[in-house]
Amino acid sequence: MRELILGGVRSGKSRYAERRAAERTDDVTYIATARADGDPEMAERIAAHRARRPAHWRTVEAPDDLAGALEASCAPQRAVIVDCLTLWLSNQLSAAGEPDPDRLRRQRQRLLAALERVPGDVLLIGNETGLGVMPLNALARQFCDEAGALHQELAALCDEVTWTIAGIAQKIKNNNKERDRVLPPSDRSGETSERNPLADRPGSQQQ
């Protein structure tokens, strides 16, 4: 089972993922992508997450090589939680000081390939950052674009996608029910390749 869990900050994503994993198995591995890097507030968040998890759960730190961590950690009858995609993506964009599109593309493809072949259950947590005002900063805009593209690719691969808000989880994709329609691939501008069905109607030509 593959599940993508999205929501805003403090929406209940991690608690939901932890509950889902515990319901499925006692064998759980937690892949953490955060770096404290001298940030006291981030260090507190990391410590709070660790304290909340059961003592027998394994923790693997993977701020960079998420694909490798998945391949090493996943096993039949085991649940693996990735917390979170957002920080992993931020780490990729900030690596070596300047964003490297080729490196990010390679890492993303490695992650998608690993997700398709690893055994066991995988629960992926990500912050949905694209619901607000478009940032003025170029790097922030790139981050929003890359996060949106990554979430779309992962959602297409996952059996389930869950949206969390105010501690409430809402299933928005479930392959155990009617198969979800997958949107056509998008280009980097956010436009899709799907033809507008209204385009050929009389009077529909854009001015």
TrEMBL record:
Chain intervals for the UniProt region annotation (Disordered): 174-207
InterPro entries tied to this protein: CobU/CobP, P-loop_NTPase
Compositional bias segments (type: Basic and acidic residues): 175-198
Keywords: ATP-binding, Cobalamin biosynthesis, GTP-binding, Kinase, Nucleotide-binding, Nucleotidyltransferase, Transferase
Xref: PANTHER family: BIFUNCTIONAL ADENOSYLCOBALAMIN BIOSYNTHESIS PROTEIN COBU, PTHR34848
Similarity remark: Belongs to the CobU/CobP family.
Functional summary from the UniProt entry: Catalyzes ATP-dependent phosphorylation of adenosylcobinamide and addition of GMP to adenosylcobinamide phosphate.
Record protein name field: Bifunctional adenosylcobalamin biosynthesis protein
